[in-house]
Specification:
Largest sheet: 7 strands, antiparallel
CATH superfamily: CheC-like
Oligomer: single chain
Strand content: 25-35%
CATH architecture: 3-Layer(aba) Sandwich
């Protein structure tokens, strides 16, 4: 096993189940945070070449909000949670319990809310993975950037170092009052970390 591009259906199913459990726990945490029900699901889990990530986000020049953090412990990895700018505004509307379209600019309160959502999503996905694998995974404090998708990805790779050629993508959907907001959660493992995860899950090749 060299990279995510070689995963089997069974292995993807295991990772999808982890994502769904994490999403359920994140929804509970978000509901407590905003005192309102926000559903979270993982409609799609996929494997993507690192070079194709900007295209998934609308192109390297598309403006996005990215929440990123480092994972250390039994494995080394980077996490990136990305929302297109318009989706980030809608998510802030959900969190602030204001009508869709209300948020135009990102002030300190709006950025803090987005960073906390990224923190919750990352933490709950990691906690689910820890529960299944018994591996130690310690996340860093999340950072937040608003920039072009390509620039954010380049900055993370420059700051955090080597990753594999493929990434795990968990499409993450938020829903409140029939309004859907979709973001993308990326796990970018260091070389060798995928083997460790799959072996711990009992689904290694």
């Amino acid at each position: 096993m060299k990279d995510f591009g070689e995963l089997s259906g069974l292995q993807l199913d295991a990772l999808r189940e982890i994502g769904n459990i994490g999403a359920g726990n994140a929804a509970t945490a978000l509901a407590q945070m905003v005192n309102a029900k926000i559903e979270m699901t993982v409609p799609r889990v996929s494997i993507l070449s690192l070079t194709d990530v900007p295209e998934l986000l609308g192109g390297a020049d598309s403006h996005v909000v990215g929440i990123y953090l480092r994972v250390q412990g039994s494995i080394g990895a980077n996490i990136l949670f990305v929302l297109p700018i318009d989706n980030a505004r809608l998510l802030v509307d959900m969190l602030m319990a204001v009508p869709s379209g209300s948020t135009r600019d990102f002030g300190e309160i709006e950025l803090s809310a987005l960073q906390e959502v990224g923190n919750i999503v990352a933490a709950t996905y990691l906690n689910a993975m820890v529960m299944f694998t018994q591996l130690k995974m310690v996340p860093s404090v999340p950072g937040l950037g608003i920039d072009m998708a390509g620039a954010i990805l380049d900055a993370i790779l420059a700051q955090f170092g080597e990753v594999g050629d493929y990434v795990l993508v968990l499409e993450t959907k938020f829903r409140k009052d029939r309004q859907d907001v979709v973001g993308q959660f990326f796990l970018l493992p260091e070389p060798g970390s995928l083997d460790t995860i799959l072996s711990a899950l009992g689904v290694s090749n």
